UniProtKB/TrEMBL annotation:
Catalysed transformations (reactions): guanosine(37) in tRNA + S-adenosyl-L-methionine = N(1)-methylguanosine(37) in tRNA + S-adenosyl-L-homocysteine + H(+)
Transmembrane segments: none
Chain positions recorded as S-adenosyl-L-methionine binding sites: 112
Top-rank taxon: Bacteria
Xref: CDD domains: TrmD-like (cd18080)
Cellular component, GO, one term: cytosol
Subcellular location(s) of the protein: Cytoplasm
Name of this protein: tRNA (guanine-N(1)-)-methyltransferase
SUPFAM superfamilies in alphabetical order: alpha/beta knot
GO BP of this protein: tRNA N1-guanine methylation
Function: Specifically methylates guanosine-37 in various tRNAs.
Single GO MF descriptor: tRNA (guanine(37)-N1)-methyltransferase activity
Domain tRNA methyltransferase TRMD/TRM10-type intervals: 1-224
Length: 225
């Protein structure tokens, strides 16, 4: 998989992409992540990428030219399965979307700033608009990092035990059940006996019951018939 991210703040990605699972995924050649500075494509003498919005109002808008030139340059080299714009008014990002995107070969992400990008960029280039939640951040970079992490960890070979990702919260429209490890007794708090029984079927049923109970209590909105 290849992921291209368009941003005006490329330095924000240095931490998230150079550690842990994302770093190992790149070292294993499971994913290529390329960061593109939109300012490099600006024809403005001062490399500006924003301007006042038509109709007046507070806040600047990201201009068409540098974004379009950057996208066109990348599209000339390969075909993209999705060109994603990170925006508060996009569709809410869910595990099912991460699953679908993990099957693609080439993905582009555009990180917005200020009051957003000129609508014509969205109309002409964007194939999917995604929001990571009902709140506003200073820019789309953190959202792009979240999408990248959620997608890449699902690629076969990235995580040592691939079945681990398939039992995470939200995979079956359920939250994950409680988990325990050593010691068996911590200050009088015991691990549930069923987990020590060695009976795989009973343990599986217990985990399912706990997952359903936890989901009904904490996130009843994700349970689907």
């Amino acid at each position: 998989m290849r992921i291209d991210i368009l941003t005006v703040l490329p330095e924000l990605f240095e931490g998230p992409f150079n550690h842990s699972i994302l770093k190992r995924a790149q070292e294993k050649k499971k994913v290529e992540i390329h960061i593109h500075n939109i300012r490099d494509y600006s024809t403005h003498r001062q490399k500006s990428v924003d301007d006042y919005q038509y109709g007046g109002g507070a806040g600047m808008v990201m201009t068409i030219q540098p974004i379009a030139d950057c996208i066109d340059s990348l599209k000339a080299e390969r075909t993209y399965d999705e060109i994603i714009y990170l925006t508060p008014d996009g569709e809410l990002f869910e595990q099912q979307t991460a699953n679908q995107l993990s099957l693609q070969q080439n993905i582009m992400m555009l990180c917005g700033h200020y009051k957003g990008v000129d609508q014509r960029i969205r109309d002409l280039y964007i194939t999917k608009e995604i929001s990571i939640g009902s709140y506003v951040l200073s820019g789309g970079e953190l959202g792009a990092a979240i999408l990248t992490d959620a997608i890449v960890r699902l690629i076969p070979g990235v995580i040592g035990d691939e079945t681990s990702a398939l039992t995470d919260s939200f995979q079956d429209n359920l939250l994950a059940p409680p988990v325990y490890t050593r010691p068996q007794n911590y200050k009088g708090h015991e691990v549930p006996e069923i987990l020590l029984s060695g009976d795989d079927k009973k343990i599986e049923n217990w985990r399912m019951d706990e997952a359903i109970a936890r989901t009904k209590s904490r996130r009843p909105d994700i349970i689907r018939d």
